């Protein structure tokens, strides 16, 4: 989807503020690098404590950053004052996760209730590490903050 | 799949030793509670730093424990001296993740090369939080340790 | 999910009538064998014209009956006067589809808007052929008939 | 993936001959419109007998053409004398299937054993109807014909 119009002109600040409340992203050291209408990018610097038994970045950690990249790609197109939940996602791991990673999320279709997004995870050397397809649901009038 | 015969009588020790090398599991405080042939259970005590912007356990963290529960359910049926990689997984989030969680992995079909597994994530109050379907591939003769 | 209460006492007649309007099911010779609250079963007698290049039942045909079994399992729990659409599904093929097949759909979680269901496809000799995980969305006040 | 080199110079004839043996494709009236290295396109002219209860093309039929488009995109890159099986696929339905359809399959990653592919289904008016992510496995030395 190319450059859809955001419904909320303050979308970028809203996404960054929401990301800042994600303690799990802080735990793994992930940063929201950029957010544009329908797009978001997350950077994950390599850390030894993110790995699985063979020394690669854990597949679930790949899922965390891909999930979050999809989520903010979708959230950027939502109106202010709503909340977004992940309905489901499916991820293929294409290569072992080595070193620092980037997850690029993109909206495939923004519907009234449901949004479908996709994320690609790349390593610094350009290796395509994982690809995710995700469904999200907008909860109109529900706050993005803890209740 | 009910009580398939393990190929490796030392399967439980092998799974526990492998899980012990997963630094990402240590990071989030997950424990391998039990491992039986074709089954594995992971416990994740609640911690504030595992949450997303609304205060629920992050969907990616749900994925991490479900992924790992599937992985050791499958690994328990593998012969000694092999390695197992996650090919892909798909997870539906059924309810927000509140409090401490358990992920129960189970092998649906153990093939020669590919294994299909499933995991259910439950909260302490019995709420069904998530369900995952996963594909894994055995790498014969490849070590489960860092190369 | 065990024996949830149907909202519509006429659920079975409503499901059978809806299935009867599925021309694609007639094309492949599929029958709705049974429908109970949260459960539905589809039978697909073997036919040579349902096969792929190797002589097995086409993977997409497996998907058709699994998709439809999930759909009527979910539709049985819906109120009268609504419509249901498939949001997404994910299917693993566990064994080649040989001979006549059965798809058994079951609701995993019936939410207000979204329902998650699962289907298992079996061959006559008991072989587990495929397993599907699916998300459906209820469209309240939308007819199940052509508009 | 852009223009990978085919291992088999006769890939197009091999794919077309294999598609021609798919009786299920003939049943629904699907045609293999084009096959290039890592890409395949299937056309499905509209027919009333392909529809579900609301008059749209059945979601399982969308799955059939997307599955097959992924399959021949992958098969085009395989060596002669092998066989390819679908391990699993996941499809999101983005819009109801109206009228004649096209499914475009593309290889995302061609591995030694496993290939990951994607397909997009479009209607004639350009509507994006469905998107699929799929995993396939090569069976070296196994024929693509009935055994």
Describe the structure.
Four copies of one chain form a homotetramer. Helices cover 22% and strands 37% of the residues of chain A. Chain A has 147 residues and is an alpha+beta fold. The longest helix of chain A is centred in the middle third of the chain and has 17 residues, at 59-75. Strand 3 of chain C pairs antiparallel with strand 3 (83-93) of chain D.
Q: Describe the global form of chain A.
A: globular
Largest interface comes to: A-B, 43 and 44 residues
User: What is the SS-derived class of chain A?
Assistant: alpha+beta
Query: Number of helical runs of chain A?
Result: 3
Biggest sheet statistics of chain A: 6 strands, antiparallel
Q: Determine the strand fraction of chain A and express it as a percent band.
A: 35-45%
**Termini gap of chain A:** 33 Å
Question: In which order are the strands of the major sheet of chain A placed?
Answer: 1-2-4-5-6-3
Low-confidence region ranges of chain A: none
What does the average pLDDT of chain A come to? 95
Oligomerization category of the chains in this entry:
homotetramer
- Radius of gyration of chain A, in angstroms, nearest whole number: 15 Å
Helix content of chain A: 10-25%
Order of helices and strands of chain A: HHEEHEEEE
Number of beta-strand segments of chain A: 6
Kindly list the characteristics that best describe this protein.
alpha+beta; 3 helices; 37% strand; homotetramer
